[in-house]
TrEMBL record:
It comes from Verminephrobacter aporrectodeae subsp. tuberculatae. PANTHER family: ABC TRANSPORTER PERMEASE PROTEIN, INNER MEMBRANE ABC TRANSPORTER PERMEASE PROTEIN YCJO. Belongs to the binding-protein-dependent transport system permease family. Residues 66-278 form the ABC transmembrane type-1 domain. Keywords: Cell membrane, Membrane, Transmembrane, Transmembrane helix, Transport. The lineage of its organism: Bacteria, Pseudomonadati, Pseudomonadota, Betaproteobacteria, Burkholderiales. The chain crosses the membrane at residues 7-26, 66-91, 103-123, 135-154, 228-248, 260-281. This is Sugar ABC transporter permease. The keyword Transmembrane helix applies. It is a multi-pass membrane protein.
Length: 291
């Protein structure tokens, strides 16, 4: 009986997780096999089997939006990790005005995504946006930031970097401040310079935090919707249509709930596969760093 006691403590959390995770996924799987227009009773839904999955796999728009999403996540998350780690290494040192700098860097993350989208849509406005005004002061012609496919994609990436680099900063800074000073002292006594201390001591120790941060930002990047919904609504063309926005359009504009459920399952499979791949790759790296 004593062996079952630990499981009894985690049972409530397990039940909540099952109710909040497994049931919605099972419900989405069931819905993907039906043609169910929005606003009608489910009793009127028509069973179509795997028709939604076939349509999804044959749709060029699906793979275009997935390509845009993969490029966006790779570029934005990579930049956020590099900037976040660099800022964390800078802010871990005793610098005058440290509290001010930390508050300033964390502020973007505290703003609601809809507000972030509105702010940056105004900043990138071709007619009266402050960014074009600043370019005019240095002799550069105004740019149609949100009307050009390349510039709009860059604006989307820049906005995400601005908002979510502070998250990486907080996570890495917490890990760095938890380092045992005796470890760093031993590295200094062994003759390690500043760069060697960062590469061979600090980063390997905080590697688990970096992996968790990478997974959190990658998953959040795949499901990002509000900011790009306000800024460009996926335009011009499909240049900024993230896969989550494509799912939104399928559900609430085309009103194809079954098809949008199939798209959601595809997104879940891709994100799960990428997350598993990152974890499998990180385990050998973690073991190598300990040697």
């Amino acid at each position: 009986m004593a062996r079952l006691t630990p499981y009894a403590y985690i049972l409530p959390a397990l039940l909540v997780m099952l109710a909040g995770l497994v049931y919605p996924i099972a419900n989405a799987v069931q819905l993907s096999f039906y043609d169910w227009p929005m606003g009608t009773d489910f009793d009127t839904a028509r069973f179509v089997g795997i028709e939604a999955f076939v349509q999804m796999l044959e749709s060029p728009q699906v793979w275009t939006s997935m390509g845009v999403t993969l490029a966006f996540v790779f570029i934005a998350v990579t930049a956020e990790l590099l900037l976040g780690v660099a800022l964390a290494l800078f802010l871990e040192k005793p610098v005058r005005g440290m509290r001010f700098f930390r508050s300033l860097f964390v502020l973007p993350m505290m703003i609601a995504p809809i507000c972030v989208g509105l702010i940056w849509r105004y900043l990138f406005d071709a007619s009266f946006g402050p960014i074009n005004q600043a370019l005019a002061w240095i002799g550069i012609a105004p740019q149609a930031w949100l009307a050009s496919p390349v510039l709009a994609f860059g604006a989307m990436v820049l906005t995400d970097i601005w908002q979510w680099t502070p998250f990486v900063l907080i996570m890495v800074l917490a890990g760095l401040q938890g380092l045992d000073e005796s470890v760093m002292e031993a590295a200094r006594m062994d003759g390690a310079n500043g760069w060697q201390q960062i590469v061979r001591v600090k980063l390997p120790i905080v590697q688990p935090i970096l992996i968790v941060t990478l997974l959190a930002r990658m998953i959040d990047g795949f499901r990002g919707l509000e900011v790009i919904y306000v800024m460009t609504f996926g335009g011009p063309g499909l240049s900024t249509e993230l896969f989550s926005l494509h799912i939104f359009k399928a559900a609430f504009i085309s009103q194809k709930l079954g098809y949008s459920a199939a798209l959601s399952i595809l997104l879940l499979v891709i994100v799960s596969a990428l997350s598993l791949a990152i974890l499998l790759i990180s385990n050998p790296l973690k073991a190598a760093s300990r040697r």
